[in-house]
Write a structure and sequence with these properties.
Layout lengths: L1 E6 L5 E9 L2 E10 L2 H4 L7 H19 L8 E7 L3 H17 L4 E5 H7 L16 E6 L4 E8 L2 E7 L5 H11 L6 H11 L23 H13 L5 H29 L4 E5 L6 H13 L3 E3 L10 H10 L20
Parallel strand pairs: 1-4, 4-5, 6-9, 9-10
Antiparallel strand pairs: 1-2, 2-3, 6-7, 7-8
Amino acid sequence: MRILGIESSCDESAIALLEIKNNKVKILKNIISSQVNIHKKYGGIVPEIAARHHVENFFPILKEAKINFKKIDNIAVTYGPGLITSLMIGVELAKTLAYVYQKPLIPINHIEAHIYSNWLSHPELFNKKTFPALAVVISGGHTNIFLMKNYGQYQLIGQTVDDAVGEAYDKVAKILNLGYPGGPIISKRANNYKGEDDLNFPRPMMYAKDFNMSFSGLKTAVLYKARAEKNWNKKKIDKYCFAFQNAVVDVLTHKIIKAAQEYKVKNILLGGGVSANNELRVALKTKADKLGIKTHFPKLKHTGDNAAMIAMAGYFNKKRAKKNNFSLMADANLEL
């Protein structure tokens, strides 16, 4: 089966073509047109500008991909959640292509696609023995822990009650004058620091009985402590990044491991931009290994928004494929 994936939930215009046969995945095309450099000067995504660039970017990358639509079985597209104006561009493009080439269209939940990004590089997951699994999506817009009982069967058991973890990274980077996006910058600066973590940043809700999380208070703690600092230098900024990242990793690993133990899962699946964080990967794998729980992470190129994961999710949602699906509408607040 060949599936064309289209992704435009935020600021990445992406197209990918997957070939899936006998539980083997072959990525034939995977093109992403990023707007990071455009939005850097604003310190975050400007929805109107993002949508405008989606319009400008999709046709050049379609031309670059040289897709032979005669050999495609389905078209999968993100229809939510995300920025409504960005989502609309991708959905309308997919509907147009599906109509012109008379191909079935599969609507994809962006959060679910982040989970299925693991299947792009871990063929062992195709086995139903994978379940029950803990599926964790951590990104700029989402921090969710799901009990995944089977393909397409999810139970939300924990989430952030305020800021998403990726959003907290961006805001702390802004507080420290490091630029945008915050995740890669803070991670790099944290790795530069070789001293002790004596800033004592809080770990909000870490020991609460449920699996919910909070990152707003941590961000505020960084803000107040930073305001009180007088003599800033490179090492001190590195120290702040190190201490902030330690707090985030502590909370996430504690909550994830606690949930994995309570629900007796066999596998932990991470997805989303923050799943690229190496400190988190190492800490989580170390704790999970001791408990005999397997951890799975997407390749770094599949952690951010991309169309390969949309096509992969399309494969597992192929029963939803429908021709001439003109009623499909973007849904910014779609839930999994």
